[in-house]
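LOG
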Amino acid sequence: MIKLCVVFLMAASAASSQSLSVGLKGGVPLADALKVTDRTRYFSDKAPYVIGPAVEVHLLLGLSAEVDVLYRNLEYSSRIQLESPAPPAPVFEARTTGQVWEFPFLAKYRFPGVLVRPFVSAGLSYRYLAHLKERSAFAGSTGSFQVTDRPPELTGHNAVGPTLGAGLEFKVRRVRISSEIRYTRWGASSFKAALGGLVSQLNQADFLLGIAF
């Protein structure tokens, strides 16, 4: 899918007389992707970064079309005490990891400027969860453990939502350096615990820095 996005934009640029820029975006999430409401049972590790390539086709009058391929990791753990007629009650522990791939398709407008140009962007983002793995075992167990690619909290691998962004771009010769705040409202949660305590955040905000040539 990544190769198809890049090839499509390169073909579109070659078919027109407009310029193409390729670069890299990276930054930090401004909030955790998972909302924990029961910290006695769930703990979520906030993704430390988001990063990926960006391709942009420059059109006319400050308009452009942009496609990014952004990666972030996913990690959370659960600790559930099972009912037992005799104490101590057994504790079941699990840790889930995975990859989150996002594909924003954006229209961007740059306001007039010389060295610094403010910009706004809007479009749709597609999210896909890959390489999910839950490893679980009873607390204190040194032998057997279970591994599955379908954690019980998973409700779907895919989600789509509108994306808005705003920022500043600095141009030094052929190099464009940008900073932006980007917001996405996902149309569906990817995780939701059956008994409550953990759910995907529908609102996502990131601070991104970019460099393009």
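LOG (cont.) second protein
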Amino acid sequence: MTSGMPPNQSAGRRAALALRHLVLLGFAGFFIIPLLWLVLAPTKTDYDLITRSPLALGNFHNVRIAWRHLNGFGNHIYWRWMENSLLYSLSATALALLTVIPAGYGLAIGSFRGRKLILTLTLVAIVMPGASLVLPIFLELNAMGLIGNALSIILPFAFFPFGVYLSYIYYATSLPPGVLDAARIDGCSEWATFRLIGIPLAKPIIALVVFFSFVANWNNFFLPYVILPNENQFPVQVGLSDIFESTRPTLALAVLIAALPVMIVFIASQRALVRGFVSAGSRS
């Protein structure tokens, strides 16, 4: 006796699978081809970028030329922009972690007046365009005398509403209430319960918050563009607008280097995320 699907159902399933793969390949090509063009652009000259195939490979001599142009641009100011971006992004992400995880934990397990209002305001802050907040942030920082200071970029991103809501959802759905009750019965204070149980269980969400917060800070353009008066204080995203005056291969190389920290944080966050899920599963 043979088992299996009827021939017409089997053929239909294969056709659906082929169509799914075709759609996925189309989307992959849509996103991968521009990245390949960007990676190959520094290997060409300006003329090659216009006349040759977008995915044609040039030579590494052109990469060295683009590197020399980038390194000498504005008396090595590009590397100053990279240092500024790392300072702003890492500092704001560290401060965001100090506020996001406790806020999400408190909103998930707490029962206090105004809790729903805070959740609503957090959602409103998530959906509001960032550009609409630049003017009130500017006026507030100006009143505090922080315009032109590194803190004027770091402090506004110390509160990360998306991370707060992400932490709230995670704790509300994944935190066993019985574990918290057992800790309180054993005499743990609320702070000790959060430190001994809440934080270790939050490894997966910490990795996500770090990644999303760092990317948001690294790609921050409009606020530094408005607030920082000196180009020596610019992050790399603002500084890239000045490199448009240079050659296209030099600009492509600058963009590739500027994307490297985001790639590194993404890889590190993925590893931490997997470790967090494995450790959480072994405890359950």
